[in-house]
């Protein structure tokens, strides 16, 4: 057994060890894009909420008194514009359009990162599988991305104090699964945005985006600890 394990380590440790930092570097890039995407989403929400905010209650006595006391061309222009300064409306329309474009661009870049991560996952799997052909102890190693998930308690117990090649590979599979699910959620949010998106939906989208419900912070912390 020791001989077969040594065989696996000698053939995969160098390659898997080289892949893992590159994999986590791309994960870090995906986190940067997610953070930027959240800012763009908040800007989109602010712009849309400003544009469709309810107009002033014109039946108010105070409103009527103010208009009568200041019945100037400037006030009349303000009323015709829907009680919104023309410059403010233009500014928020531009903010809305720009934010949407930024979200689309950010999602496209995030998709590229996901594809790169998938390639790195395949590289790790191939390295392990190649060594497993001559190591019976590791022939049943399961790196299925579907089965590589967190426990119900949210804890991770598969990383020992001295991780080996299979431990690194399993971490890659789990982190990739989380990041991919988080991206899929963000993509659905961006694709559903429109001028008809309700305030409640926008609030929920911003909340879910900021929470990263598919990403386990403890697992990410352990993943980064493997770099050192």
From TrEMBL:
Residues 11-131 form the DUF7795 domain. Pfam families: DUF7795. Residues 110-141 form a coiled coil. Transmembrane segments: none annotated. Keywords: Coiled coil. InterPro entries: DUF7795 (IPR056697). This is DUF7795 domain-containing protein. It comes from Deinandra increscens subsp. villosa.
